[in-house]
Amino acid sequence: MARYCVIMCGGVGSRFWPFSRSEKPKQFLDFFGSGTTLLQATYERVKPVVSPERIVVVTNKEYAGLVKEQLPEIKEENILLEPARRNTAPCICWAAHHILERDPEASIVTLPSDQLVLKEAAFHKALEKGLEFVEGGDRLLTLGIRPTSPHTGYGYIQRGEPSGTDEILKVKSFTEKPTADVAELFLNSGEFFWNAGIFLWTARNILKAFDKCAPQVATVFADGDYTAAGERGFIEKAFPMSPSISIDYAVMEKADNVYVETVDLGWSDLGSWKALFDISPKGAEGNVSQNCRLLSTDCRGTLFAVQGDKIIVADGLKDYIVADSEKALLIYPIAKEQDLRHVVNEVKNRFGEEFV
Amino acid sequence: MARYCVIMCGGVGSRFWPFSRSEKPKQFLDFFGSGTTLLQATYERVKPVVSPERIVVVTNKEYAGLVKEQLPEIKEENILLEPARRNTAPCICWAAHHILERDPEASIVTLPSDQLVLKEAAFHKALEKGLEFVEGGDRLLTLGIRPTSPHTGYGYIQRGEPSGTDEILKVKSFTEKPTADVAELFLNSGEFFWNAGIFLWTARNILKAFDKCAPQVATVFADGDYTAAGERGFIEKAFPMSPSISIDYAVMEKADNVYVETVDLGWSDLGSWKALFDISPKGAEGNVSQNCRLLSTDCRGTLFAVQGDKIIVADGLKDYIVADSEKALLIYPIAKEQDLRHVVNEVKNRFGEEFV
């Protein structure tokens, strides 16, 4: 049974503005100054488990050039270009059809292109075990991370009955973005896990689940032409007709054959500046200096990040994000970071597309 | 009697870091995004009073290229290049010798290259009147600005007896950088004026004053070769031998023939970010947005300045300087701006010359 990987790479990442911009979202950035972008790191991380000719990248057609530039070894036919933004469900449905056309017995790891995984060996082990599990029966599997804080921005998975395989359990419930009180309960119960957005299944079984749980998406892609000759033309027309919906909402929360594999990966979704701050090593005053040289006095709990060779001199900042890109400078309280999406919208309205 | 002007253009302007850097100090910057640098504005401001072929620019030899680039019409022989940094007295002494060689009857306006003067007509009138005054006798004249705040960074001039010419008075005393209490007294007395650093005299009389008040400087330049053929060679050797001393300290505070012309010029010495903040128009929350597009929430009394086409998003800053250049970002309380010199030193020590 051949194993495939689908790297979802079409997001905009506005919570990382101004580094992440619509013309070059965060998955294409070298966030840590390591010489490797998040997409490249994701690709390399998957390679020991899935052979490169079976790694498929799905992205918005706007980013075709970036993907080719950053992953020069990837073959043209392994880059799927979405003609419109429609969230994760249509992306996953198309990719499953595409892979099924190439290999009816394929199993698939589907994952975002912009996460951080510090424990690579554990990650590889988790994928191996998970793939075996989904190859053995009609099951949908998601990776669950043991929560370390009552984060209100994640989806939570409640574990249910054991599956017979260690660390893999039936899912009892999904809860998207709970309130702070509820997240606190979840954290303390020990029964809940963060939904990492890393999914395992066979091509056949996920399409079966689409038919059952999300017919409005399934019909768009059913009976499509996924041959090399016809796929592009078909997708250009069909894809935009899909509703915009996440895989969690379309399938995972509805299907009755969903399992969670509980894992410890040193994982962060890098969903926001706060997430980056939390996982980064702190200096003496609890500040994070991301890829920059900093001279700070009387600053605490502040994240300083620059693009390019630049220094920062700061005095008296407490719990701030200072993020400096070529086009924009953000000086913003960490506590208000959930407002950043609105800020980005406001920037777009007031100053124009070029800044977001 | 021919009228000359000496524009002093060799300063470093570290209190405007990171905009002002030693390789391109503030006089060479277009501070207001007007398309004109401070040096260019100074040159244009003087032209209606002094004919261009008699405007002399004295600068550090390091800035020869910048001067030629920014003042393309100026003749090579009107650019005097200092081989070392020695404050204003040697600069003025050399320039007076240089001009005396060209015209023994010359009168001279000497002024900094980096000030702001909003009332140009008043400036021209003040120079005309002042030049007449110094051409009529052995007198040294300085322009005095009526103070609007108890600024502790300026020199104060106490006016004495009338001179017979309206608005020109004998100077009773000079006080450099008074304490806050004293500055408050000065302000309330009505007898004190800020020393604008704009001086008028004849070449002959200022050299006479050097002989009398500052022989340690005068001897360095006495008997020099100021011919076109010999000046450069002479200065290269002699200039560095002068003590480093200001004209105020060397001559003005000691001479007994010093007068002040009280003027209202819409003047600012633009000595620091605070000075720029004070004279700039404020937005709704009392912020200044210097040459940048700003989206601010809950900010007050803050100066935002960028170089280049960039936007700033800020939240919650009170009484700050935010100054962003290509090489460095400064986020600093306005109240601590007198520490900026030390910060610049620290930056140099820690990160290297290239950043200052």
Structure description:
The structure is a homodimer of 356-residue chains. The model of chain A has no long low-confidence stretch (mean pLDDT 95). Chain A contains 11 helices and 17 strands. In chain A, helix 3 (88-102) crosses helix 6 and helix 6 (203-213) crosses helix 7 (215-221). In chain A, the strands form 4 sheets. Chain A has a 5-stranded mixed β-barrel. Chain A has a 4-stranded mixed sheet with strand order 12-14-16-17, covered by helices on one side. Chain A has a two-stranded antiparallel sheet with strand order 5-11. With 356 residues, chain A is an alpha/beta fold. The radius of gyration of chain A is 21 Å and the shape is globular. Chain A starts with a strand and ends in a 5-residue tail after the last helix. Strand 17 of chain A pairs parallel with strand 15 (311-315) of chain B.
- What oligomeric arrangement do these chains adopt? homodimer
Low-confidence segments of chain A, given as residue ranges, are none
What would the principal axes of the Cα set say about the shape of chain A?
A: globular
DSSP helix fraction of chain A = 25-40%
Largest sheet properties of chain A:
5 strands, mixed, barrel
| Total helical elements of chain A | 11
- Helix and strand composition category of chain A: alpha/beta
Mean pLDDT of chain A: 95
SSE topology string of chain A: EHEHEHEEHEEEHEHHHHEEHEEEEEEH
> Largest inter-chain interface?
A-B, 30 and 30 residues
Our measurement of the CA-to-CA distance between the termini of chain A, rounded to an integer number of angstroms, reads 43 Å
Strand content of chain A: 25-35%
| Gyration radius from CA atoms of chain A, angstroms | 21 Å
Strand order of the largest sheet of chain A: 6-9-7-8-10
Number-wise, the strands of chain A total 17
